[in-house]
Amino acid sequence: MPGKxxxxxxSLAASVILFQNCSKKDIGSVVNVQPVSVLNLPETPYNYSxxxxxxxxxxxxxxxxxxxxxxxxxxxGATLGRVLFYEKNLSFNKTxxxxxxxxxxxxxxxxxxxxxxxxxxxxxxxxxxLLNVRFYTSGKMFWDERAGSLEAQVLQxxxxxxxxxxxxxxxxxxxxxxxxxxxxxxxxxxxxxxDTTRIxxxxxxxxxxIVTYQARYDRVKQGLDMFTATERDGEQLxxxxxxxxxxxxxTCATCHTPPMFxxxxxxxxxxxxxxxxxxxNEGRFKAGSLRNIAAADNLFHNGSISNVxxxxxxxxxxxxxxxxxxxxxxxxxxxxxxxxxxTDTRFASPFK
Length: 352
Hints:
Elements: H1 2-23, H2 55-64, H3 75-85, H4 98-101, H5 150-153, H6 156-159, H7 168-176, H8 181-189, H9 196-208, H10 216-221, H11 229-240, H12 252-255, E1 269-270, E2 284-285, H13 308-312, H14 323-334
Antiparallel strand pairs: 1-2
Helix pairs in contact: 3-8, 3-9, 11-14
């Protein structure tokens, strides 16, 4: 009993000291301090690090995984990344977060052609989806591949003057004033220290954990389902039919290699755009994944193609498909949609 009394007195004294210290600060500077109760996180973190992928996905991951040795996915690291991904304090006026331009229900992209920044300004490019970025062998990010890794990319939107409008100092100041981050950083990295390297690593862990492997296509590849005749024909056209360039021209699969339907080793595609010259100012852009593309709007770097049906009938040389084949390829592409990733609680906002 005396021991319990001592603990109670000690806890009360610590609370008084904390209150006194906070009261010395300017009230305006602590308005962002929120109780842990604003987060809805499980006592045992969700599984991000030990997913049992189907064989066709596991083989592709082993061959293409861009995860650096110093930033392997952990459950606590990805949990911290999830909180940061939905943290509105990472925008200047606390109105948007990473998920504002990469919406889970939209397959971690934006339904808008160009996304809206913290003050209403528009981004210069369409938001790429964040699905399966772990499988880009080169690790290069952005439409123009200007970031050499995901870790180098994730904070750039936060620091962009149109997107989220923050500075490095303001990011660190904001996060250090929030009461739930010391424990989250300690669980993820062993101490409560908050720095931009750890922020980037946690966000990268969360984003790399967003992998699609539960589409109908995946069930077929596991022998749990079968393609319809139209879907089967569409797959064969996708894999083998040459483009408008005739025999020997690239197929759809050249730049969108199964099973993740991306290929960072393929020559990036060319899309005429006088206002944006892309990679090395050569009019080339990164070839994105086709996973969940049938449910996406506003495709390509500038969002100029409204949907996949329009893409298949477009006049873009590398993407035009003969009219008799369009319905078949579209039917196949629809099997690539993984609806579970758009509703999975592990990837949803943790804020109440």
